[in-house]
Write a structure and sequence with these properties.
Helices cover 60% and strands 3% of the residues. By secondary structure, the protein is mainly alpha-helical. The protein has a single domain (7-170), classed as Hypothetical protein af1432. It has a two-stranded antiparallel ribbon with strand order 1-2. A hairpin with a 2-residue loop joins strand 1 (33-35) and strand 2 (38-39). The chain is globular. The termini are close together. It holds the Pfam family HD. This is HD domain-containing protein.
């Protein structure tokens, strides 16, 4: 499935990404793998882009700036969770808190919506749901992108191809 922003929306997205890269250690996340062969950085950018797209498509009443920033920082945990280390055993349950701590430390103007998005993006695995629409959009986009990254290259073509054709025909 393809989705595109207008040139103006793309510029806004990439300007926001560039600003965050300058004021944080977000680029370090290139070093860590997330799902399959997708880096944490690439995953975060994909999730943020898809969150932005969904919010615009739904005409959702959200703070777009907070949505994009919170989504870009949702996995700002800055470690390789695949390493055999006792502290990584429960990564799925704990990384959202660590990502929020890192983001709050590195980005002084992080707002309440962004913090809530980062802390609650693993709902329902973490039991506290998001307080804001921005967080709900992030939860959905993160699950969709994570699922696609995880199964990419693992499903046989006879399963993948009909599904892609069906999606395209429904657009």
């Amino acid at each position: 499935m393809t989705y595109h922003l207008s040139d103006e929306q793309e510029k806004y997205f990439y300007d926001t990404l560039e600003e965050l890269c300058r004021q944080s250690r977000l680029l370090e996340s290139h070093r860590y793998m997330q799902h399959g062969d997708t880096s944490v950085f690439r995953h975060s950018v994909s999730v943020a882009y898809f969150s932005y797209y969904l919010a615009l498509k739904m005409n959702a009443p959200v703070d777009i700036h907070s949505l994009v920033r919170g989504a870009l920082l949702h996995d700002y945990f800055l470690y390789d969770w695949h390493e055999k280390d006792a502290s990584h055993k429960w990564h799925g349950f704990h990384h959202a808190k660590k990502a929020c701590e890192n983001a709050a430390r590195d980005i002084p103007d992080l707002n309440e919506i962004e913090k809530d998005m980062i802390k609650c993006h693993m709902f329902p695995l973490n039991i506290v749901p998001p307080k804001y629409m921005e967080g709900w959009i992030l939860c959905c986009a993160d699950k969709i992108c994570s699922g696609a990254e995880t199964v990419k290259g693992r499903l046989p073509e006879h399963i993948v191809l009909p599904w892609r054709k069906q999606i395209r025909s429904e657009l």
